[in-house]
Amino acid sequence: MKKNEPLEAILWSVALPGFSQLLSGSYIKGILFVGLEFIINVKSHFNKGIMLSFLGKTSEAANIIDYQWLMFYPCLYMFAMWDAYKVTRKNPKKYDYLPFAFGAYFVTIGLMYSPIVTVKSIFIGPIFLPMIFLIPGLFIGFIIRYIILWTKKENY
Keyword annotations for this protein (predicted)? Predict the structure, then answer.
């Protein structure tokens, strides 16, 4: 099994969930993540939504997205990144999963609110709002991890 660097593993998982697992030799996990990503992506019309959002047609993107399928995506995406990160860590640390878990949670919240959020009459849409929600999710995850470790007086 090839050991990648944690940042490299996360970036491969950003490109496509499962790539990092395939590169590190975890073929079953990698194929599972790639397969699930493909199914969710196709069923939710995610790529079409991304294309329309980047073309400024966020209302059209919101209408084409199948939210029932897309709701699975944040958890799969963040779990694949956490798994890739965890496997590459030489000395895994406690509660490393918290930023990933809170990131997935907040992206899901952003996805749920995306059909209704407008800022100064600009509809943000189902692609950009969840991406924006990732930032506070990761931040809160890191803060909670720090607080837990600080209260237990453990190394962080």
Answer: Membrane, Transmembrane, Transmembrane helix
pLDDT tens-digit map of 88-122? 888 878 899 999 999 999 999 999 999 888 776 78
Place of tokens 């939210």: 67
Give Dmax (Cα) for the chain.
51
User: What DSSP string runs through 72-88?
Assistant: THHHHHHHHHHHHHHHH
- 82's CB contacts (< 8 A; 6+ apart) are 96, 97, 100, 101
3-state helix, strand, coil in the chain (%, to 5): 70, 5, 25
Bridging pattern class, strands 118-119 and 122-123:
antiparallel
For the chain, which residues make up each domain, given as ranges?
6-151
- Pick out the chain residues at pLDDT < 50: 1
The answer to whether 93 and 64 have CB atoms below 8 angstroms apart is no
pLDDT in the model for residue 122:
80
Question: Is residue 53 a contact partner of residue 126, using CB atoms and an 8 Å limit?
Answer: yes
